[in-house]
Each structure stands twice: as C-alpha cells, then as structure tokens.
Design goal:
With 327 residues, the protein is of the alpha+beta class. It has one domain: 2,3-Dihydroxybiphenyl 1,2-Dioxygenase, domain 1 (Roll). It has five helices and 16 strands. The chain is globular and about 55 Å long. It comes from Halalkalibacterium halodurans (strain ATCC BAA-125 / DSM 18197 / FERM 7344 / JCM 9153 / C-125) (Bacillus halodurans). InterPro entries: Extradiol_RC_dioxygenase (IPR052537), Glyas_Bleomycin-R_OHBP_Dase (IPR029068), Glyas_Fos-R_dOase_dom (IPR004360), VOC_core (IPR037523). Pfam families: Glyoxalase.
C-alpha cells in the first residue's frame, strides 16, 4: 500500500481545569484566535477549545479539554512534555521576553540548544510551552496570524513547532516513528538534564519546525501522572479522507490497536498508542472550521457538529457559560 508522507503536526490537545482563565491566557496574552468553541465529542459535558491562526489552518491548532476537577500533573516519562509555538524571527523572542515579564508569565531565557532560538515558558497551570524562531527555518509553511490579535503581526504566533515526547524506552517509539509513520532521523542535541542521552530529532514531509518530533529519553524519573497542565495527545496531518482510510487499513493490518476511522466533522481522525503509551492521532487537513460558522465570528458561539445538534439544549445546560464574543 502506497502511503503519502505525513505532513507534520496537525494539532496538540491538552487539559485545563479552568476554561475561562484558559481563554484569557491564550487569546489575550498569547494573542492566538479562538477558532472553535465546541465540546469533547466523547464526553459532551466538557468544553473543547481550539486556538490557532486566523482560521485554524492545519498545523496551527493548540486545543484544550476543560476538566474542572483535573488534579495536579506529576511530570514524568511516556508523555508529551513540551509543545512549541512558531514565531517569525529571533527578534520576536525579545518582544515576548518583555511581554512575559509584563504579564508575570513564568519563563526561561532565550536558548539555542535546538539549533534555533527558543524561549520556554509555562501557562498558569504549568503547561510546558516554548516559542521557537522560524528565522532560519525551511520546510512546512506557517499559518497566518489573526489581524485582530493583541500581538503585533511581526511577532505573532503562527502555528505549532516541534513536539517533545519523553519516554523511558526510546527504541520502541523510534520504531513507530520510522518504520510505521515514515519519519526520518534528522539529528540530535544535548539533553538539558545532566547525565541523560541526547534528544533525537525526527522529521516528516517537507521538514522544518512544523514537521519535527523531538524524542527525549529519561531513565531518572517515573511515569507521568497527567492532570491540568498536561498534554492529552498529538495529531499529525493527513492530506485527505481517502488517504486517512489507507492509514486505517495499514495500521490495522500491522496489528496496532486503533480507533478505526472517526468522524470529527471539522476533520477526520484515527487514534492509536505507540508502545510507551503516548496517544497519537492522524487527522485530515479538512474540511476545516468554517462549515458551521463564518470566518468573521469563528469561536464566538458554541458550535456543535450536526450529529450533536439535537442534544444542544442538554449540552448547554451541562456547561458553565463562557463568553467569547468579540464585540
């Protein structure tokens, strides 16, 4: 079966305990656009919020499930330990340093340990994030910043950068990335933790910041216990529904337990876990977020796919109101 290479990151989905504060941080502080306010289709009692570029182009979405009673995250292995966000230049990182100080955001200094200028920071729940400069980047194109963002376009976040996986048995994840998903090893850089192996870099498709997975090995800590401020899963881009159906057949035929084809309305999906237990999703580039809302008012109302619309009254009763109107 001939499969096209995966195109890079599609979205990253994380956990928050506070949707209102989450909305404020990612739109007002980070300047991303809320392109969809909907619900977790597997548990409609919780919000699912999508922050992205101007229209939620594939590869730009950082999403959150609201779980109000989510406990503390105990950081460890077999988890997604860092989500990076692309900015256009090294100069942009200087803007963000000042902005983080102004808003009281916990952050590190600018670093070049990945070969690119980066700036690690945490949100109000300890979500592990990093800005990465695209100044010398070649590869997958970035998204387009929203013109109504409080952050100037010259410094704005333009999509997802590399995602870091931290595992205890790297050879198992490597095998999935290379032999199953078609990634290629690009290089490595020293671990930030003394005495631990180098972090390996894998890329797919056109490569570049939007198509890299960084694989970190840790033998000195236990398994992560997820909660608020942790990442639930990472999704990778597939061109079309037809291509995704080929991936469903392929993943099933090689014996990997998986979800099968899943209709999410805004895109179509396939879920499976790699051997260290990290949840991977393959998701189609379309249809996108404008099938049920116009571009001008994306994210302002509660959007439900057609198959959940008959339950709207019940769903709305179970959600705490979240005002996301722009005017």
């Amino acid at each position: 079966m001939q499969l096209k290479p995966l195109k890079g990151q599609h979205h990253v989905s994380a956990i928050t305990a506070k949707a209102k504060e989450n909305y404020t941080f990612y739109t007002k502080t980070l300047g991303m656009r809320l392109v969809k306010k909907t619900v977790n289709q597997d548990d409609t009692s919780m919000y699912h919020l999508f922050y992205a570029d101007e229209r939620g182009n594939p590869g730009t979405d950082l999403t959150f499930f609201e779980i109000p009673h989510a406990g503390q995250t105990y950081q460890g292995t077999n988890s997604i330990t860092k989500t990076s966000l692309r900015v256009p230049s090294d100069e942009a990182l200087q803007y963000w340093l000042k902005r983080f100080d102004e808003f009281g955001i916990e952050h590190d200094g600018v670093s070049h340990h990945t070969g690119r200028a980066t700036l690690a920071f945490r949100d109000f729940e300890g979500q592990r994030l990093e800005l990465v400069s695209d100044e010398n980047n070649e590869g997958v194109a970035s998204g387009i910043p929203w013109k109504e963002s409080p952050v100037p376009e010259a410094y704005a976040i333009r999509g997802l950068g590399p995602v870091t996986l931290t595992v205890s048995r790297p050879e198992l994840t490597e095998k999935i990335l290379i032999d199953v998903m078609g990634y290629r090893e690009k290089g490595s850089y020293p671990s930030l933790v003394e005495g631990q192996p180098d972090v390996k870099v894998f890329e797919t498709g056109e490569g570049g910041t939007g198509a890299e997975v960084h694989l970190e090995t840790r033998k000195d800590i236990g398994r992560e216990r997820p909660g608020r401020g942790s990442v639930h899963h990472v999704a990778f881009r597939v061109e079309s529904k037809e291509e995704l159906e080929k991936w469903v057949d392929y993943i099933t035929n090689i014996g990997l337990p998986n979800s099968g084809f899943v209709e999410r309305y805004y895109f179509r999906s396939l879920y499976f876990r790699e051997p260290n237990g990290i949840l991977f999703e393959l998701a189609t580039d379309g249809p996108g977020f404008e099938g049920d809302e116009p571009f001008e008012t994306l994210g302002e109302s509660l959007a439900l796919p057609p198959y959940l619309e008959p339950q709207r009254e019940t769903i709305e009763k179970n959600l705490k109101p979240l005002d996301t109107a722009q005017s």
